[in-house]
Write a structure and sequence with these properties.
By secondary structure, the chain is of the alpha/beta class. The protein is built from eight helices and five strands; from the N terminus they run H-E-E-H-H-E-H-E-H-H-E-H-H. The chain has a five-stranded mixed sheet with strand order 2-1-3-4-5. Strand 1 and strand 2 form a beta hairpin.
Length: 175
């Protein structure tokens, strides 16, 4: 892991950003396609929000349309560059290896997550390799912090509408 760009923001700022993305994601519970997975990209030094995204795998018929990947795609298009150096990704759940790899390739300074990959695995299939391990095995620097507001983010997974939606998702093997 590397050293993030200098910032005066601390744990209180991280909690505020995580609460904001959790609240944004919670709004999806009243839609036809609820999702517990939300991500935001914030300018590391200024703290300014660039954008937010939700998981859209089912809506886009694309298994790579995870919230983090969608946020990274939208951010690079908005900035018209492939590097997100100078930005931090906040996500309601620890990034899977695909999402963490995308964060590394994008050059994000930090990744901050809420619920853990093990929390998510209670409800849907996951590749259970911690984001910190993916980052540690890379030669691309990125600080990984979490869990932050784990209980609040895990509550997205246990919302009654989300529990009903999980029963419809076909990614969980039936035993």
């Amino acid at each position: 892991m590397g050293v993030a760009a200098s910032t005066s923001h601390g744990p209180a700022f991280d909690r505020t950003q995580m609460a904001a993305i959790a609240a944004f994601t919670a709004r999806s519970m009243s839609t036809p396609c609820p999702s517990p997975f939300g991500a935001s990209i914030i300018h590391t030094k200024s703290g300014k929000l660039l954008l937010r995204a939700l998981n859209a795998v089912a809506q886009e018929f694309d298994p790579s349309s995870h919230a983090e990947v969608r946020a990274i795609r939208k951010a690079t298009k908005r900035l018209k560059r492939v590097s997100l150096a100078g930005y931090t990704l906040y996500t309601t759940c620890e990034p899977c290896p695909m999402c963490m790899s995308a964060a590394l390739w994008a050059g994000l300074d930090r990744v901050v997550y809420g619920a853990t990959i093990e929390d998510a695995n209670r409800h849907c299939n996951q590749i259970r390799i911690p984001a910190t391990e993916v980052a540690a095995r890379s030669d691309m620097p990125c600080v990984v912090d979490g869990p932050i507001l784990r209980d609040e983010c895990y509550a997205l997974f246990t919302h009654p509408r989300m529990l009903r939606a999980f029963r419809l998702w076909s990614t969980r093997k039936r035993k």
